[in-house]
Amino acid sequence: MKERLQSIKQEAITEIEAADTQKSLQDVRVQFLGKKGKITEVLKGMGKLSKEERPVIGQLANEVRDEITASIEEKADLLEKQAIEEQLKAETIDVTLPGRPTHTGGPHILMKTIRDIEDLFIGMGYEVAEGPEVETDYYNFEALNLPKGHPARDMQDSFYITEELLMRTHTSPVQARTLNAHEGRGPVKIICPGKVYRRDTDDATHSHQFTQIEGLYVDEHITMSDLKGTLNVLAKHLFGEDREIRLRPSFFPFTEPSVEMDISCKVCNGDGCSVCKHTGWIEILGAGLVHPNVLEMAGFDSKKYTGFAFGMGPERIAMLKYGIEDIRHFYTNDVRFLKQFHQV
């Protein structure tokens, strides 16, 4: 039996040296040290030995098993090191090669325009206010001096859900809600960006869904000159320091007096071209002093408080600023269009 154990040891050593993968080495372990391995077979035959031989053979079997185990572990370490070396060789990086460019996305040009305007007004002390896109008839119209049956409602062809619920047609309801929340105490100084909805035919300059940014400033002693100064800062920020503005009389039910603001055409510098329809001016937004009725309905004393409001379309601002000819480009997700504004 001693000879048998020595033979098993030599056979195991030979096969361990020949093993070239972790799997083949594991097979050797099972072959010699497993429950049905060759060492186990020898130990099962010890019952036939005399009492004097059993401890001798048992000790030898343990020594052979320990030597085989040590050899397997040593070979396993060697195979692991070899595998790591081969992996490192295969994954060697040539640091002299140029890097691969990574194409990253960026904010949509419309969102950039909105954030640019937000940043300007936040710097002027305004807060950004938001409200629901599904609005009540009261806040969308009545609280803005547009009672039921008012002809100006027809100008905003609305998506009604019920008789009292609709998709908001402008962000002015956010102004009305904010005024109510202040319970007749000023100042109120907010801008309201968001999506609005109107039943309109989509074409190069119209969309049934678009965005608006409206502003509101209510306090004591607010005058038309405060409005004009604010709009002048806005125009120069968006279109350059050399832009001039003009205010033309207009009508909005929620402001009195009401004005339209034009800027001098940046293409022809006011000389007249096809962009400005040869007038030298381009219409940008509507504005005016908050109507006393709007203030009174929100609980403000219109003899003590005055204010101004204005509203603009970021799509129109972006189209004029970046020479975009079709409003539908903002919504069709054409990557070729979007890539043009990565560096803006």
CATH architecture of the largest domain: 2-Layer Sandwich
The tally of beta strands, per DSSP, is 9
CATH class of the largest domain: Alpha Beta
Coarse morphology: elongated
Instruction: Identify the strand order in the major beta sheet.
Output: 1-4-5-9-8-7-6
Mean pLDDT: 87
Give the number of helices: 11
Q: Which homologous superfamily in CATH is the superfamily of the largest domain?
A: Bira Bifunctional Protein, Domain 2
- What's the alpha carbon Rg, rounded to whole Å? 41 Å
Largest sheet: 7 strands, mixed
Sequence stretches where pLDDT stays below 50 over 5 or more residues? none
- CATH fold node name of the largest domain: BirA Bifunctional Protein, domain 2
Helix content: 40-55%
Count structural domains.
2
Domain Aminoacyl-transfer RNA synthetases class-II family profile: 110-340
Enzyme class: ligase
Keywords: Aminoacyl-tRNA synthetase, ATP-binding, Cytoplasm, Ligase, Magnesium, Metal-binding, Nucleotide-binding, Protein biosynthesis
GO cellular component, one term: cytoplasm
Description:
The structure is a single chain. The chain has helices at 2-18, 22-33, 38-44, 53-90, 109-123, 137-140, 172-181, 224-239, 292-297, 314-322, 335-339, and strands at 127-128, 134-136, 165-167, 188-197, 209-219, 245-252, 255-264, 281-290, 306-312. It has 344 residues and is an alpha+beta fold. The chain has 2 domains: 2-90; 109-339, Bira Bifunctional Protein, Domain 2 (BirA Bifunctional Protein, domain 2, 2-Layer Sandwich). The strands form 2 sheets. A 7-stranded mixed beta sheet has the order 1-4-5-9-8-7-6, sandwiched between helices. Helix 1 (2-18) packs parallel to helix 4 (53-90) and helix 2 runs antiparallel to helix 4. This is Phenylalanine--tRNA ligase alpha subunit. Belongs to the class-II aminoacyl-tRNA synthetase family. Phe-tRNA synthetase alpha subunit type 1 subfamily.
